[in-house]
Each structure stands twice: as structure tokens, then as C-alpha cells.
Write a structure and sequence with these properties.
Layout lengths: L12 E6 L4 E4 L1 H7 L3 H4 L14 H12 L4 E8 L5 E12 L5 E9 L2 H18 L1
Antiparallel strand pairs: 1-2, 1-5, 3-4, 4-5
């Protein structure tokens, strides 16, 4: 069984990707929790931290939302480099920089035990529907 990594109450994970989801920036909190160095993360798809328990429909919803220019929020179970996992409440913001390149900024905080329990139930149902 994989080990859960608990975020500190004041942890704030930030990453920026291009419009294809390739990491352009990751802050120290994100690197530390995920277990990757910044060098290992840069240029990699953000889904290197995707956990197998996450239903495909959750990310489909995220992508549909941000590609329309809308802000997405939700609970996400991510995988660590060493096979563990951690839960976050994520907010993903689409943006366009001054050079007209588009991308996404994701800000994540610790999810509460109650929030995680609700998300687990919802995601279990969603995974059943995928089969």
C-alpha cells in the first residue's frame, strides 16, 4: 500500500504549464511534496504526478473548463515520485502572457479530511462508470 504524504497547513503548491500541460515552472513546495527536483519537472507533462486512482472524467472536466478560459477548482489525488500520494484542493487559472503564449497556473492547498472523503466517494463512482 502506498504512503500518504500530508501537506503542511500552510503549504501552497504552484505550477505553471503551457497550453499542452508541459511544466514551465514549479515552486519549492510542489517539488518537495511530489519528490522531484525543479530540473526533473521542467519540460515534463504535468501528468507525471497523476495518480492512477483519479478518474479520467475528472481531468476531462478540468481541460474542458480551462480551454474555454474558465477557472477550474477541484480535489486531486496526485502521485509522488517514490510511489506515495497526496491530496490537494486545486484551482487552475488559464492565462495569456504578454508574448501571447497561453498557459495554465495551478495553485493547490491542503485538502481537509472531510473534503478528501467526499472526493474519494465521488471518484470511486466515476471510476466505476469508466469500466
Amino acid at each position: 500500500m502506498s504512503k500518504e504524504v500530508l501537506l503542511d497547513n500552510n503549504a501552497f503548491l504552484v505550477s505553471e504549464t503551457d497550453e499542452k500541460g508541459v511544466i514551465r515552472f514549479a515552486n519549492e513546495d510542489f517539488c518537495k511534496i511530489a519528490g522531484y527536483s525543479l530540473e526533473e519537472m521542467l519540460g515534463k507533462p504535468h501528468n507525471i504526478v497523476r495518480h492512477k486512482d483519479m478518474p479520467k472524467a475528472a481531468f476531462k472536466s478540468l481541460w474542458q473548463c480551462v480551454q474555454k478560459g474558465e477557472i477550474w477548482t477541484g480535489y486531486v489525488k496526485n502521485a509522488t515520485k517514490d510511489g506515495g500520494y497526496y491530496w490537494v484542493f486545486a484551482t487552475v487559472y488559464p492565462f495569456e502572457s504578454c508574448d501571447n503564449s497561453k498557459g495554465y497556473l495551478s495553485c493547490r492547498r491542503k485538502a481537509s479530511k472531510i473534503e478528501i472523503e467526499k472526493a474519494e466517494k465521488l471518484y470511486e463512482e466515476m471510476k466505476k462508470n469508466e469500466m
